[in-house]
What does this fold into?
Amino acid sequence: MNWLADDALEKSPTAPLVDTPAKKPAEPVKAPAIAWPIDIAELRQMVARGAPLPGNTYGPLRFPSVGPMSCDVMVISDLPDIIATPETTMPLNAALLHRMLGAVGIDVTDCYCTWLATSMPSTAEVPENDLSELAAFMLHQIQLIRPTSLVMLGSAACKALLGQELMQARAELRNVEHDGLNVPTLVTFHPRTLIARPAMKKQAWRDLQMFAQRVLQ
It folds into this structure.
């Protein structure tokens, strides 16, 4: 069974959309505590050993990014709750993301999946005051991966990287521009939001259809 109700799977007409460049996020408010990694392998090692990278000091458990170091689609979340591990206790999020992307022909295992916070904040939310620094470090990862497209999940990631609220940014194809890169970007609801509010799945399906029609074909 698909992740949506049967009536939501009917192909809906998609209005013409205009690519909208992202607003550039604010510059980091402070200099990096240490030199940032020069490749993804080093990044994962630094996260795992607790290096003071942006987003890596909220709690004792660290969650490096997962997936291939070279890929077409890069998935960005706010928290590491889109992977099925005992520590995150969020296997439902991971399973729903797998079905969502699979519905438009994307295998999550072929994607580089990462998150603003590589350690879990006690509040289960990314501190808003840290968004500028977290965005700068995420842009660094985008530069290392150089994907052909981005899938951005949830309001915190959207606000950090696009400078916009989720409901303003979704339903149109966005672009993340950084250091010569211009990456087409889908902004949609985080799986945990769709689990809490199933009625929003139809909107997410329309977002995915638009992305598939505009970027994946």
Helices lie at 40-48, 91-102, 131-145, 155-162, 166-169, 191-196, 201-216.
